[in-house]
Amino acid sequence: MASKFESSIQRGCDFIHDFVCSPCEEDRLNTEAQYFCNQCTKYYCVNCVPVHNKLFKRHSVLDRKDVKKWAAAPGTVDVLERCERHPGEALKLICGDHDQLCCHVCVAVDHRLCSSIQHIPDVARDIRKDPGFRQLPQQVAVLGKQIEDMKNDRKKNSSSLRKTRTAIVDEIKAIRKMINGILDKMEKTTVQELDRLVADQEMSIKKDMESCTQMHDELKNIIDDIQSKDSSGEPPLYIGFKKCEEKIKQAKEILQNMSSVVKYDLTFRKHNGIEDNLSSMKTFGELNESNVLCKQPCTSLFPRDHVFATEGYKEYNLKMSSDRYDCHIDGICGLPGGEIVITDFNNSKVTLLDQEYRVVDHCDVKYPFDVCHIGGNEVALCVNNDDRHELHFINITKGKLVTTRKLSFSHKCNSATHHGNNLYISSRTALYVYTMTGKLVKKLYEDKTGSSTVGRIAISNDGKTIYITNNQLITLDNLGNKLATFTDPDLWGPWGVHATTAGHVFVCCCESDTVLQVDKDGKTKLATLARKQDGVYTPTALLFSSRSSSLALFFSSRSSSLVVGGEKNTLLVINVQ
Prior knowledge:
- Mean pLDDT is 83; it is low at 1-14, 294-300 and 534-548.
- This protein is α+β, with helices and mostly antiparallel strands and 577 residues long.
- The chain folds into 3 domains: 4-125, Double Stranded RNA Binding Domain, CATH 3.30.160; 145-280; 299-576, 6 Propeller (Neuraminidase), CATH 2.120.10.
- Helix 7 runs antiparallel to helix 8 (234-259).
- It has 9 helices and 30 strands.
- It has helices at residues 4-12, 22-26, 49-55, 104-110, 120-123, 131-134, 136-228, 234-259, 272-280, and strands at residues 35-37, 42-44, 61-63, 93-95, 100-102, 117-119, 310-317, 329-334, 340-344, 349-353, 359-364, 368-375, 378-384, 389-397, 400-408, 415-419, 422-426, 430-435, 440-446, 457-459, 465-469, 473-477, 482-486, 494-499, 505-509, 514-518, 525-531, 550-556, 561-566, 570-576.
């Protein structure tokens, strides 16, 4: 048996266990328990448990795998006061240095050097009067409500995912149906062409056979005539002879011409491109998984009715040495990673910027207009002139801009935005809705009172509200019904419009050189975040000058800033709060 000195050393050093063997403890030994008996309510080590099991064969013994089921032995700790790290010990102390509840084992092992160890009964006096304690039920209730709301949001998200799957499957089936239709049409056209060629060949064969029959009959008739004139004298025979020679000559010429065609035949050689193209495509389209993250600072941290204020600004010169003209920034959109994509109409290019607004890559595209984010690292670019009305899909892969496909339209394609599985395209006088494959869903809105009545477009995160700029800011519902028309002295020549995921709406104006925040209903101005006459942006006079129009606008939730572009080389980044 160990001496008292040895036992006290063991108990005062790191050989302290969360559960101590009960028989060993009675013998003043410190042995870690590996078993617990519910009937005896005692703990046993590996040496003592065989003796217990021999004496009490019907008792239920739990090992360390079921340690959570071990009941507290008589005189042990209540669940609330039990130390989570050492379940056999009670929480009696608090470490002020770490603001941590401790049992005597915690103090011995982890808090030996801490200077502020207090007895819980001392610091717990008048706890019922503590405001924090009194507010605890309310805080838990509020947090419980937030947890329940999060569960409901995730439940709705799951339902939305299932609906999205159904919509995508419908689109895939529509693509398959379209491809089947194309293939059916190709098959029909090919068979029709085959039938035409067979008919032509059969007609030629028929003509040859008729010629042969005619020649044979004519020659036979002449011979028969000659033979019948044998007793009529020589002149008739001579005439018959000469006619027969002429007919033989004609027959030989006809046979000679016919013999040039040994056989009428048809062959078929398939277009390898069809099979090659289809076999090279494993799916009908690209599926992108995305998690919409909120990284501080983020608009979702602000209430929907939050009014922003300007905190500062910075200008970035985007002109490259290869640019022949000043940059004319006509479109701006952001990617999930914080990169920015802009279009430069004057220099016929699309440019990728990193999070610090430095040029990463660019590609040449004639007549680039607006650009919008589609999903993942894909954007859609409006390309438009008198002959071309297209939407180019560009994928950003390893810092490179790569065009993957194009859609063509019969109307102008000046602006675009994306929601769900639909594209919203502005033609300057109308707003169209298309599927992602370019199938027209409907003409949502039209205004023929001018040449530019549907400028730029933005759509709310829930897809229920659409914002359109012309000489005013027009708000529509998703059925195309006009909900509001907004005018304001600061709203002069509105052009760029942007709706954040949290519901904040911003508009930039190319005539008044202003950037406004408007309420979600599109009826009220909440703030003028930038204006020329404020003198805030005039030191360089690159963007907000009388000859520089604000055309494109984007809100970066990562940096809580408005990114504004126009007709000069500078990108203006306005920090808001």
